[in-house]
Amino acid sequence: MSDVLDNPTWHTLAGTHAAFAQGTDRARRYAPGFSPILGFADNAAPDLAALLPHCASGEHFYTAGWEGLVPAGWVLDDESTMFRMVWDGELPPEAGADRPVPLGPQHADQAMALATRMASGPFGPRTLELGHYLGVFDGDRLVAMAGERLRAGPYCEISAVCTDPDYQGRGLARHLMLALVRRQLAHGETPFIHVMSANTAAHRLYLRVGFHDFSQPVVRVISRL
Question: Which residues does the UniProt record annotate as the domain N-acetyltransferase (predicted)?
Answer without folding.
Answer: 81-225
